Amino acid sequence: xxxxxxxxxxxxxxxGVVGMADEKAPDEGAAEKAGKxxxxxxxxxxxxxxxxxxxxxxxxxDRLARRQGDVYRAPDDGARRSPDDMKDDIDAVIARLxxxxxxxxxxxxxxxxxxxxxxxxxxIPANVAASFTINMRMAGAIAHLRGWDIxxxxxxxxxxxxxxxxxxxxxxAAFGVKIGQxxxxxxxxxxxxxxxxxxxxxxxxxLIAKYGSRRAAITLAKGIPILGGIVGGAVDASATAxxxxxxxxxxxxxxxxxxxxx
Length: 262
What we know:
Elements: H1 2-9, H2 13-19, H3 28-48, E1 49-50, E2 53-54, H4 56-68, H5 87-106, H6 108-113, H7 126-145, H8 153-163, H9 168-174, E3 183-184, H10 185-188, H11 193-215, H12 219-222, H13 225-251, E4 255-256
Antiparallel strand pairs: 1-2, 3-4
Helix pairs in contact: 2-9, 3-7, 3-8, 3-11, 4-5, 4-7, 5-7, 5-13, 7-8, 7-13, 8-11
């Protein structure tokens, strides 16, 4: 069945999934557990929110309503304009969402304070898990405003992968799409949910492999209380800004897209 699905998308699915982890593969069990945790966190955060962090749609719509004032229409209102017709407003709101997320990620007290609400069954520090939460909500809000339905698990998987820092190229490869092609919601929905779950699990390989290498540089600095907080906050804020811009670029126009390698 996997081969048939891959044929629909134009390339081998298995090759794309393997290509997601470009570093030494971590333990299979730990990686699968990490992938499951990330998928569950994405669903929880994007749809319902966690603690003081509201869900992606509620947050995005609140900011859009503030921007539009009396002309604002809710998503279920037939008079609501399309994302293309609201481009200027949506661009401005997304810029604000990214700015708010960067500020939250850089505030160590706020980020770490979420730890108890998003405890992972894997070895991930509370501040890192909380940063993922902020990035997940931001990515989900951006996807919603760009016209993607994050209630759909297929869409949520794409957004989740972008939110943990995967490049659009790697996300496309995981779904069996070559660089230069595009993949929209309808094509995503041709994939059985069982395949989506397998891709979710493989996210764990990326998460564990990248986590160690990306944060190792600040581990020693974290041992010095004041410096550690400054360095950690700066790293988290910078990562959130990059993820926000990359997610918005990847999800514009109703299809997942990535630039050709230069």
